Amino acid sequence: MFHLQSIELLHWDYCQRLSLPLDGAIITVAGPNGSGKTTLLDAMRTLLGLECSGGRSFKTYARHANADASWLRAVVDNRPRTRQSSSRPFARNLLYADQVTLACRIQRNSGDWQRRYYMADGDVAIEQLLELPDKDWLGIEHWRRRLETAGLSRAIARVLALEQGQTDRLCEYSPKELLRLVFDVFGDQEVLDRYEEARRHQRDVADEAEAAAKELAHGQAQLALVEARLNLYRQYQAKLRERERLHTEVIPVLEWRDARDTMLAEAQELHRQRLEHGKSLARQRQDRQALLQLAQQQEQLAVQLAQAETQRKAAQEALSEARGHETPVEDLVRQADELHALAQVEGDAEQLALRVQQLQQQCQAHERDWHTRQQEREAAQRALEQLRSARTAPRPEDATRFAQLLRQQGIAHHFVADAIEIIDEHWRAAAEGVLRSARWVVVLENPADEARASQLAEQQRYRHYLVADAAPAPERVPPHSLLAALHVAAPLPVWLLRTLAAIRCVPDTAAGFAAGGEWITPQAYWRDARGGRSVWVPPSQHQFGAAALAARRESIEQRLAELDVQLQAIAQQQRESERQLQAAKAAAAGHRAAEELARRSEEFATARSQLAQLRQARISAGQRYAELDQQYQRLGEQLRQAQSQYQQTQQRLQGDESAASRFAREWQGRRDALRTRSAQSRRQRGQFPPRWIAPEAIAQLREQFTNATQARLRGQAVARELEEGEWETDPSIEERHTLMVAQVAGQQAQLQQRQASNESARIAVDNARERYIDVLRATVRRYRKNITELGELAGVAVQADTPHLENDDAALRQAELRVHFNFDGKGQIGLNDGEASGGQQVIKSLILLVGLLKDDEASGGFVFIDEPFAHLDVRNIQLVGHFLKSTRAQYVLTTPITHNVEVFEPADVTLVTAKKKPGERWAPPIGVLQRRVAPEQY
After folding, report:
1. CA distances from 41 to 276, 685, 891 (A)
2. Alpha carbon of 903 to those of 138, 196, 377, 882: distances in Å?
3. What does the pLDDT read at residue 10?
4. How far is CA 363 from the centre of its chain?
């Protein structure tokens, strides 16, 4: 690196023009405070392309001179360090003289100050430089690059640019600040700052990407709203098209097709009626013949019935006469047997009393039986009276009570028994048996009432089901099922309808097993998946329909007849027992039964001899009467059947004749009307396009709408939706949607590209900084080597810890360079731990400072140090001066005026400044003291 030999100032601050020698190792600038020592250092810094200290600038100094231009010119050493010319500092700038002139021209340009630079071989005066053209002058960046090739590295430039007071206070830096200074001086901090700037840029890009993502989300939300509006618009258009299609195609075609189907059904019905009319005429002829035969048969049966009735009455009279002859004789024989039994015990008082007691007990038993039967008859009579005034079979008490409670709560309902009528009496027993357990199931009309009804059923402990899932009976029921034998007037539980529809009616068990599945016989033998059992219900317990009421009445009447017969028999037995009791009591009172037997022996014998003949006559008369009665009943039943058949045939004949008459009146008119409608249908068909009425098209319409009524309902629903719904009717929404889709897609693609680019940049920066960590470690090793060698020159043991450098932001921010010094073997001390003296502090700072500019590849160099001897005693000043001499570098030092001459002892050149006097424009000239030294040998 080159050394400074002299410097010339022209119109710099308050210096008019002066030339100062700098050809020495140590140049000391002495003077009072404010005498221009720092001004001189800033002139050197400006000439070298550096920034001034303390916030000052070259513009400030040029403005103070109040001249059009300010000049700075220095002559520097350019002698080679070896025998080769390429070892000259400015050889790369094609300057090979032993001296090189460095010049800086500061001129006012458009109201602002600008500096331009120039270098030339030899010692060139300012007057010669004035003649140079402007194109030969260099800018600041070009100038700095040229000085860098001459040995003024960036590290030395940063050291020279240190502020006043920083050079001698480096030991006061913290380890972290010292490491930052090392990186800054050697140019690494700038690289790290660029990496950090790249990181900030990536974060900014990430923030921009996040903002773009939010904007994209907003755009997507807006797109979703537009899509919703577009869907509404498309639905609206679809509804319009559907309405138009319904009214122009679907409804007319289906109406035409339905009319065609109706006409086809009517034509088939007319054909069927015509065939049925022919069958009806044949059936009428048969019925007329049958009526004639039935009338003749009725006349014959009436004659036979009259004869049979006459014979039956005669036989009944004969039976009554025979019973009238037998009864007195039978009573005499019975009386004789009673007297004989009494005669056997009348001699024994104890047996006689026992006989009386037995007869009394029999009388009492007969009386009790009579009263029991009488009570049963009265209850049956009351039940019969109730049935005569009732329309349906009575309900049990618990069902009646629960129905009344439901009505009080306003819960609409009905029982299963109230909803079913058995229309086929042949299957009444089967239906009554199957439905017995479901009679009093409660069917709720409103399913919402189920909770309240269940609560009431729980309170009343009603043991039958409550059902809310009910349905009316289907219009088409399976033939030969038990459901076909019933008429259902109200909804029934769904499960009950399925059960009744699944039961097949079969004539007997053999047919049931042959058919398989679930079946029942007319005698109520039911077989299901669980097996077979009889569910027979006595007629007196029938419940369903008016026939059940009649069956109950008939059953009660039969019971009344049975009770009447039983009461008559009990009364007869009661009379006999009382008569025997009276005879026994008479015997006990002295009446002798043996005497009466003897007295009436002839009468009793005659009765015994006649009783067998009379009984045989009565039996023969009874048999004759029974035969005639059976014949009479048979003839009566035949007559009733003949009359019933006659009435049925007559009614059928009347119905057929009425239908035939109506057919004759209506058939031709209906046929003509059908022909007219058929012609209209053909004309209407010609108005439709062929594709509308193609079988496939009509099949699709049938599958979608079923019939024209459903199509009209759909048309009404579409019109109602168009009128009441909220629709989008603006056709521009499609274009807006297309534009927004493109916009959102572009934003998404741009965001993805930006995110991918930022991620790639992040990876590249991380990888580059990872590799640059090795450069940082090399810089630290270089600085450690420099300060260690400088410490050896100063007689100080210097040790520096290797900082922890990793590719991590936190690790780099927390990295520290800890340096330890050992003066005179007194132990290690740190940078600023308070254990070093003032001179040792200055030496530490100088070691740290010179270590920043020391370069093995380019020896020499110069340093600007502002007041390094401040506050030092004589001994420490000597130590500092000895260190400066031992470093073989050029130093420009400043010091205030002091009485201690030791500060000037190491100086080769001493420059003495003075303050500008008030009222004068220019400052006094600078005094020069130069030590004579032997010329250096190269």
Report:
1. 139, 115, 11
2. 39, 45, 157, 11
3. 92
4. 89
3-state SS class at 181: helix
For residue 624, pLDDT over 90 is answered with no
Residues constituting the chain: 938
Burial class for 27, CB neighbours closer than 10 Å (0-12, 13-18, 19+):
buried
pLDDT classification of 526: cutoffs 50, 70, 90: very high
**According to the model, what pLDDT value does residue 321 have?**
82
Q: Rounded to the nearest 10 degrees, what angle do helices 175-185 and 733-794 cross at? A: 100
Q: Which two tokens stand for residue 214?
A: 């939010």
Phi, psi angle pair for 545, to nearest 5°: 90, 175
Count the Cβ atoms, other than its own, within 10 Å of residue 171: 24
What span, in angstroms and rounded, lies between the C-alpha atoms of 726 and 884?
A: 94
- How far is residue 372's CA from residue 567's CA, in Å, rounded to a whole number? 10
Strand order in the sheet with 99-109: 15-21, 4-12, 69-77, 99-109, 112-121
Query: For the whole model, what pTM was predicted?
Result: 0.42
- pLDDT over 50 at 938, yes or no: no
Average pLDDT over residues 235-263: 86
Give residue-wise pLDDT tens across range 781-808.
888 888 888 888 777 888 888 888 887 7
In whole angstroms, what is the distance from residue 677 CA to residue 326 CA? 89
Q: Would you call 461 helix, strand, or coil by DSSP?
A: coil
3-state secondary structure of 443: strand
Distance CA 909, CA 616 (A): 189
First to last CA, the chain: 15
The Cβ of residue 220 has, within 10 Å, a number of other Cβ atoms equal to 15
- Long-range Cβ contact pairs of 184-187 (< 8 A, separation 24 or more): 184/158, 185/154, 185/155, 185/158, 185/159, 185/852, 185/853, 186/154, 186/155, 186/779, 186/782, 186/783, 186/852, 187/154, 187/155
Q: How far apart are CA 435 and CA 422, in angstroms?
A: 11
The candidate with the shortest Cα–Cα distance to 12, out of 178, 126, 94, 119, is 126
Q: What are the pLDDT digits (tens) for 159-192?
A: 666 665 555 566 777 888 888 877 777 777 777 7
* Structure tokens that stand for 737 in this block: 């949607």
Strand partners, 4: 76
Q: With H, G, I as helix, E, B as strand and everything else as coil, classify residue 618.
A: helix
For residues 21 and 123, is the Cβ–Cβ distance under 8 A? no
